[in-house]
Amino acid sequence: MTDRIGRLREAMATLDADAAIVTHPANRRYLSGFPDVDHAPDESSGFLLVAGDDAGLYTSPTNIPWAEGSVRAPVTAAPWEQPWPQFLGELLKKSGVKRAAFEDRAMIVADHAVLTEAAGSIPLIPAGIAFHLVRARKDDAEIASIARAASITDAAFLAATATLAPGVTERELVWRLELAMRELGADGPGFPTIVASGPFGARPHHDPTDRPIEAGEPIVIDMGAQVDGYSADLTRTIVVGEPSPEYEARYNTVLAAQTAALASIKPGMTGRDADATARDALVAAGEEAHIIHGLGHGVGLLVHEFPSLGKTSDDVLEPGHVVTVEPGLYYEGWGGIRIEDLCVVTETGVEPLSQAPK
Amino acid sequence: MTDRIGRLREAMATLDADAAIVTHPANRRYLSGFPDVDHAPDESSGFLLVAGDDAGLYTSPTNIPWAEGSVRAPVTAAPWEQPWPQFLGELLKKSGVKRAAFEDRAMIVADHAVLTEAAGSIPLIPAGIAFHLVRARKDDAEIASIARAASITDAAFLAATATLAPGVTERELVWRLELAMRELGADGPGFPTIVASGPFGARPHHDPTDRPIEAGEPIVIDMGAQVDGYSADLTRTIVVGEPSPEYEARYNTVLAAQTAALASIKPGMTGRDADATARDALVAAGEEAHIIHGLGHGVGLLVHEFPSLGKTSDDVLEPGHVVTVEPGLYYEGWGGIRIEDLCVVTETGVEPLSQAPK
């Protein structure tokens, strides 16, 4: 944990700031240990202030016992006063801060206005995603949590689909999958499980319905167990009953693209280049019109985080990044095919954590 | 739905704005019908723009089929281009907007900076909670959803605690409660279920642990099923085995305070006056030192929303508000007692939706 705060201090230095205000729940958790989420955009559960030699996690007085029990050295927990942006501004002044970096991507305009007023002449420097980047390379403990989440996800997928028959609705299958994840030891699903059957599969994001699954149609299942705050992310496309030749052809096109990507992605590549490993295969198969999203994204305390694997991404892959590799093809009126593995970027390539059969 | 947009237009008029930018997920859902949540502070799922005669829900192209299937007239769905704050600023200019109200409590600083630049000379007016207030009085359909959520919550509480025995851990009981809610028809829990046993009950917010429940100690259970996006909110404090005289005395003090509150709260009261109905009873019983939070809060598409029932709240209760009434007492080292009912404010008082025995 000292190391994490040390890396935050390095990020502060690049911003020429002598204080860091951390308000994004994932960054706050990673850096302090306090696991609470925010309950709404305007209902923060706390901020971490690193200034001088101090690292304080400030939260409501009623949260203090929980915070004291969860923060890790060198972070200490302390109660804030409301309105907290005003309290924070005064704290910056009392601490003799010269330039405070804040998360402009995780602070609402109203809180920023109060903070700016209260901080007086202390400049507030937008940190962009600098504090997120401190979390980008996962350590062994994090990878162990993510691997366990992936393994539970694989097992739950298998358990819940083993006896799947036509007539089960999307929502019923979602519940079977989520129940299985929980029973296998997950803290819950890390994001709302997607079951998109038949034509609904043409939507990469889909709110599951009471539509009964039919034999022979593609069923896209996108799911992820959560363990220690880390989510897995797995997509498989299956058929109940006999697949059509059309399904088989499309499935094999996506699988070949994913296989190519898994074999080619390496540290040092940009997200754009990684994306091209699968995209080129899909384009070569004449399916360009049916690609509607990038290849993948980083996964950690957030289900979508740095780096992005997409056709406009300059993010550079490094060992210790955990990313999805999920090419897909989508056909309006027919459905979709997506195959997604969660992978660790290693020194030489990527190692899939997802092991569910394809 | 037309009526909802009509009330939004009234709120715009009070802000002297001819356009409203709605980004808070709860307000966006209420006003447009599109149910998606935001995945992170800097990962919006869409905005609603009401300007002139138009009401457009803008979201990512991949979300469009889902959005088209869920928006309700007069709202129409349309794809945005990224970065969306820039797209939005250009849209404001194209639409000839003079003054645009935006949610300063639901827009991050970084998005606001891009929007401000792109909107050029069009003033952006902070709306505060004005768009939330459009949702404050619940209509019959909303109250029906909330009542169903409350009824499922009551039944799940009873089912999961009926055979509770010492040795069950907090986390195991949480899972029993959440499973029961789901099996009884909830879409899931509306917020993380709290089981705080023995000394942990001294924390109003608590992350359930693997601590086994012991006979005779207070167990605070705070839970709520979600139905149609609406959460119930119920707290009961129970004992497995024989309650101590101390427990009984403290329990009865809280129950008497809650009973007084339920009998006294009426529309027209401020949140401060509503809070006093229970606080005065607890203070009269000599327990002032053990009060650590206000009496309650509004509940709707958000678990915590307007109005606030607390000792500094000027919010005024109106028929159709749905609020919690949840006095509590907390003793460091011993535990807590909290009793919470979800209630509808009627023309003459409050009507509890929660029916679980006390």
Describe this structure in words.
With 358 residues, the first copy, chain A, is of the alpha+beta class. Chain A has 2 domains: 2-133, Creatinase/prolidase N-terminal domain (Creatine Amidinohydrolase, Chain A, domain 1, 3-Layer(aba) Sandwich), CATH 3.40.350; 140-352, Creatinase/methionine aminopeptidase superfamily (Creatine Amidinohydrolase). The first copy, chain A, is 35% helix and 21% strand. Chain A is built from 10 helices and 19 strands. In chain A, strands 4-3-2-1-5-6 form a 6-stranded mixed β-sheet. In chain A, strands 7-10-11 form a 3-stranded antiparallel β-sheet. In chain A, strands 8-9-12 form a 3-stranded antiparallel β-sheet, covered by helices on one side. In chain A, helix 5 (109-119) links the parallel strand 5 and strand 6. The longest helix of chain A has 22 residues, at 140-161. The first copy, chain A, is elongated, with a radius of gyration of 22 Å. Chain A starts with a helix and ends in a 6-residue tail after the last strand. Chain A binds chain B through residues 24, 26, 35-36, 38-43, 61-63, 65-66, 70, 102, 104-110, 112-113, 126, 128, 175, 179, 182, 191, 202-207, 292-293, 302-304, and chain B through 24, 26, 35-36, 38-43, 61-63, 65-66, 70, 102, 104-110, 112-113, 126, 128, 175, 179, 182, 191, 202-207, 292-293, 302-304.
